[in-house]
Specification:
784 residues; alpha+beta; Penicillin binding protein transpeptidase fold; Beta-lactamase; five-stranded mixed sheet; 25 helices; 10% strand
């Protein structure tokens, strides 16, 4: 039946076959006939739901366009309302005031090192390095990056903060007209002013303003000051390679300063330098052949800022760095933004530094070391660098710091540098990992202070019977036969801790190191790390040992007590965090380390020091391969101090041996951890602390009476007669200079459970050993 006939039938009231329902139509409900007046529309269509009536697509689209219109009108209003302010970059610079913990003035820093130069004085290709680095579209954009600005606004509103993608015009506006605040208001103003500046000023004027107001590090504002600070030339004499380095610096000035950069920082700035030059080639601003002929332009040695001589500069720089890191974490600033927000911006920063302890530490270094150095008589004396950090383990406060002989003479802070090996000061971390993991030897015995290991020098380390290709020599190649963990720590027996690291699992050892505060990023979990072959700073080691002293609660040393700026106070993180290892494990490490002082490698300089007066002390010595670094990190119940000595060529900055320094040591004149570092530590610590006792929750180690004496261990009096502690008083420990790897022809010695038949003997160090381990032998320390 056709549609016309159906319609006529309905009009007559007749009933024919009901039309078929479309699939999209709902079936009639019970009791409701098709076409009846049961509430359905006459057309048969279902009624719209309330949600569909409120949120129809037309209404949503209308609302969207309405919001867009309001946004456009609002932006037009903002554009008309916001004017370009007076440029005031120089006036924004104000002195920062730094105070000791008692409120007395330490330093006042704020003299701005800036000299404005005309863009015509800067070589054209050097100008283009900045464009290539920051904003390739600079010459044909409108002055703003809308997507980047939108991303920044969203991040600011959501609390993420950190933004990227700003144009050169926006960065210039931020530096010259505004500030580094991460607020929606500031970002909107930046957007509007950038648009207006781009319309009213030429691109050359904007570029000149940008390179003349940016901060390059080394207290240098503007390209002229930066050219002098990094290359000792005027801006007009900069090469393209040098310009590319300065342009790369702007992303993170202090992190990318070659003089103080970490390995990671050097890698990143090199990558960015290449990025700048590659962009220039891509844009046609530099030929490929010229690009290929350029070499990385290493900067000149920096000079300290005025008014920061002696230790002041090191303290000020560390305070700035810690404040910058907090602003980056708290407000989402980039590294460059944080530096711009801190350096010479009117901060009042009170440090945790105790004036009396600071003076005592400086005096201890002078009387025990630097006063004995004479570079005119001995070339090696000019290569000796000292660094030290002293921390209150209960609060995490850095109460004293020694960064070098003078900030003007040595810009690099020795207290915070992490390019030298901590050597055997890492051994307590291995023990901590073993105790925390309830690890066992490979024959199933729990690792405790009384566990017996095979102390044979150059003993092949085994992993469940399989060679791992590592067999480090002990100090002076001494064989120790069967020896307890306590004795091995006292005598710093490399072969024992190399095996222990494998027993525990090197991945677990390195994980524990990270929990305790060591920066383990990029470090390999290999057996050679048991000898402290990684890099670490006195600041790091002080934090690790402070965590031991604080019963396993994480201590992150901080130099800042408070930081205020124009009524605003920055909340600094609590230096003491939660528990990262158990109290029993931490206290056992402390107990064992008292044996190093009383019966081991630090006995002569620390335990027998006439200033000790019964003070309880725990600590560990360390001397790296080829005598390039020497350490003593130790603590009383109330104070942790890490002292490091480093051999650094004064011209090339290469790591060199310290052998023969001062001319006061018997042949071969080795500087070791139990010598000058321990002497500095003792002179300082015993002069500023009162007698106190450790509160230990452990039944192990030298600080407590053992509950049971195993019949299979040697007592401390049965250790070899030719130990490091029986050398002359100036050299309590004497590291070997042989590489730590085992020769291919050497056969493995006994496992830890076997007993060597020979008695302990010592032999002369051997040389020219072919490494079986793939690690570079020059990077593996003696570990004493």
């Amino acid at each position: 039946m056709g549609r016309a006939e159906e319609r006529r039938a309905r009009q007559r009231g007749g009933h024919r076959a009901a039309p078929k329902r479309r699939r999209s139509e709902p079936a009639p409900t019970a009791g409701t006939a098709s076409g009846a007046s049961g509430g359905a529309p006459a057309s048969g269509k279902p009624a719209k739901s309330l949600i569909r009536r409120i949120f129809g697509w037309k209404k949503i689209l209308g609302a969207f366009f309405g919001v867009c219109l309001l946004g456009i009108l609002g932006f037009i209003g903002l554009y008309l309302y916001v004017d370009i302010p007076e440029g005031n970059a120089a006036a924004q610079q104000q002195s920062n005031v730094y105070k000791f913990s008692d409120g007395t003035i330490l330093a006042r820093k704020g003299e701005v090192n800036r000299e404005i130069v005309d863009l015509s004085k800067v070589p054209r290709k050097v100008q283009l390095t900045f464009v290539a680095a920051e904003n390739k579209s600079f010459y044909h954009d409108s002055g703003v990056d809308l997507r980047g600005t939108a991303r920044g606004l969203i991040n600011t509103v959501s609390g993420k903060g950190k933004q990227g993608g700003s144009t050169i015009t926006q960065q210039y506006v931020k530096n010259y007209y505004l500030n580094q605040d991460q607020t929606v208001t500031r970002k909107l103003k930046e957007l509007v002013i950038s648009l207006k500046v781009d319309r009213e000023k030429s691109k050359d004027d904007i570029l000149a303003g940008y390179i003349n107001t940016s901060y390059y590090g080394r207290n240098a504002y503007g390209i002229q000051a930066a050219a002098q600070a990094y290359y000792h030339v005027d801006a007009q004499d900069l090469s393209v390679a040098q310009g590319a380095y300065l342009a790369a610096l702007l992303q993170a000035p202090s992190q990318y300063d070659w003089a103080v950069a970490t390995k990671t920082g050097k890698r990143l700035v090199t990558q960015r330098w290449n990025y700048v030059l590659d962009n220039m080639v891509e844009e046609g601003w530099l030929s490929k052949s010229d690009r290929d002929g350029l070499h990385f332009p290493y900067p000149k040695e920096p000079k300290g800022a005025p008014g920061l001589g002696g230790q002041k500069g090191y303290l000020v720089e560390l305070a700035n760095q810690q404040l910058e890191r907090q602003l980056m974490a708290q407000e989402g600033l980039t590294q460059s933004q944080a530096e711009n927000a801190v350096v010479d911006k009117g901060w009042t920063i009170t440090l945790n530094i105790d004036r009396k302890k600071q003076a005592a530490l400086e005096k201890a270094v002078r009387t025990q070391l630097t006063g004995k150095l004479d570079p005119k008589k001995r070339k090696v004396d000019g290569a000796i660098q000292a660094g030290a950090v002293s921390v209150d383990p209960k609060t995490g406060r850095i109460v004293a710091l020694y960064g070098g002989q003078d900030y003007y003479k040595h810009y690099f802070d020795n207290a915070a540098r992490s390019d030298y090996q901590p050597a055997s000061t890492f051994k307590p971390v291995i023990l901590a990992a073993a105790l925390e993991q309830n690890a066992t030897t490979q024959d199933g015995k729990p690792i405790t202070a009384s566990t017996v290991y095979d102390g044979t020098s150059r003993r092949q380390v085994l992993d469940h019977g399989a060679k791992v290709g590592f067999a480090p020599p002990n100090e002076d190649d001494v064989d120790y036969d069967k020896i307890t963990v306590q004795q091995a720590m006292n005598k710093s027996v490399n072969s024992v801790f190399a095996q222990m690291g494998v027993d525990v699992g090197m991945d677990k050892v390195m994980a524990t190191a990270g929990k305790l505060g060591m920066d383990t990023k990029g470090m390999q979990a290999v057996p050679a790390q048991t000898l402290g072959s990684m890099g670490a700073s006195p600041l790091e080691m002080a934090g690790i040992y402070a965590t031991f002293a604080n019963h396993g609660y994480k201590v992150t040393p901080t130099v800042i007590k408070s930081a205020e700026n124009r009524g605003r106070t920055v909340d600094m993180p609590n230096p003491v965090g939660g528990s990262v290892i158990s109290r029993t494990a931490a206290d056992t490490v402390t107990s064992v380390l008292t044996g190093v002082v009383d019966d081991g490698t630090a006995k002569r300089s620390v335990a027998d020091n006439p200033l000790r007066d019964g003070q309880q002390v725990a600590g560990k010595t360390g001397t790296s391969d080829e005598n390039k670094s020497a350490w003593f990190t130790g603590y009383t119940p109330d104070l942790v101090t890490s002292v490091g000595l480093f051999g650094e060529d004064p011209k090339t900055k290469a790591h060199v041996s310290m052998k023969g320094a001062t001319g006061l040591l018997p042949p071969p004149g080795r500087i070791n951890g139990g010598g000058y570092p321990a002497q500095i530590w003792a002179t300082y610590t015993f002069g500023v602390t009162d007698k106190a006792s450790f509160d230990l929750n452990t039944t192990q180690g030298a600080a407590v009476e053992p509950t049971e004496t195993p019949t299979w261990t040697h007592t401390p009096t049965q250790t070899p007669s030719q130990t490091p502690t029986e050398t002359p008083s100036q050299t309590p420990e004497s590291p070997t200079e042989t590489p730590s790897q085992t020769p291919p022809s050497q056969t493995p010695s006994q496992t830890p459970t076997q007993t060597p038949t020979q008695t302990p003997t010592s032999g002369p160090p051997t040389t020219s050993i072919s490494p079986e381990n793939p690690l570079d032998p020059e990077n593996v320390p003696d570990g004493t």
